[in-house]
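Run log // design_07
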C-alpha cells in the first residue's frame, strides 16, 4: 500500500497540475461561462470519467501503445481535434437565449457529460502523461503496481473534481452577467468558438 505521506504529496501535486492552465480546465471554464455552472459541473464529471479510461490505460499498459505507435497516436489526436472543431462551429453559429436559466437548459445533461468524456478520452497525451506521472509515486515493494496505479488515478480524479468544480462555479457565476445580454452572448459564443478552434489546432500539432 502507498504510504500516506506519498499520497498527500501526490494529491498536492495533482491539485497544482489541475490549477495550471491546460485544455481541460480551459474547456470547463468556457462551457461554464457559456452555459452555466451546472453545465461546467457536468462537463467536469465527463472529463473525470475520461480520466478513468486513462487510469485503466496506464494500469493495463494501453498508454504504452499510444507512446509507441505513431498511427494510434495520430488517429486519436485527429479524432479529438475534429470533435473540437465541431464544437467550435456549434458555438460560432449558436444564437442567443432568453436569459441565464434558458442558457443552462439549452444543452441537455447527457450532451454536456458526453462532451467532457470525448474531450478527455480523445487526447492521447493524457494517457502518456499518466504513464510518465503515476508510476513515480508507486513502489513495487509495497504491493501490486496495478492497485497502486488505480489508487493514484482515483486521487488525481478527486483533485480534478475539486479544482474543476470551483472553476465551474466561478466561471458560471461570472458568465451569468454575459448571458443576460444578447450582444454579450454573441461575443461569448464567438470567444468560445475561437478557444475550441485553438484547442483543436494545439491537439492536431501535438507530438508524442
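design_07 sequence
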Amino acid at each position: 500500500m502507498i504510504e500516506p505521506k506519498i499520497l498527500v504529496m501526490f494529491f498536492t501535486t495533482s491539485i497544482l497540475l489541475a490549477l495550471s492552465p491546460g485544455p481541460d480546465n480551459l474547456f470547463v471554464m468556457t462551457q461554464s461561462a457559456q452555459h452555466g455552472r451546472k453545465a461546467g459541473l457536468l462537463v467536469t464529471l465527463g472529463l473525470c470519467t475520461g480520466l478513468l479510461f486513462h487510469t485503466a490505460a496506464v494500469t493495463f499498459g494501453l498508454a504504452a501503445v499510444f507512446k509507441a505507435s505513431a498511427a494510434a497516436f495520430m488517429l486519436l489526436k485527429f479524432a479529438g481535434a475534429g470533435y473540437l472543431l465541431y464544437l467550435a462551429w456549434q458555438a460560432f453559429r449558436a444564437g442567443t437565449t432568453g436569459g441565464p436559466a434558458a442558457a443552462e437548459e439549452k444543452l441537455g445533461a447527457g450532451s454536456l457529460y458526453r462532451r467532457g468524456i470525448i474531450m478527455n478520452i480523445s487526447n492521447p497525451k493524457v494517457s502518456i502523461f499518466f504513464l510518465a506521472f503515476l508510476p513515480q509515486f508507486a513502489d513495487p515493494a509495497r504491493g501490486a503496481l496495478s492497485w497502486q496505479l488505480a489508487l493514484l488515478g482515483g486521487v488525481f480524479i478527486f483533485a480534478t473534481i475539486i479544482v474543476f468544480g470551483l472553476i465551474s462555479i466561478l466561471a458560471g457565476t461570472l458568465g451569468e452577467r454575459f448571458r443576460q445580454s444578447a450582444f454579450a452572448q454573441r461575443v461569448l459564443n464567438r470567444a468560445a468558438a475561437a478557444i475550441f478552434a485553438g484547442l483543436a489546432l494545439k491537439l492536431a500539432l501535438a507530438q508524442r
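Residues 37-204 form one domain.
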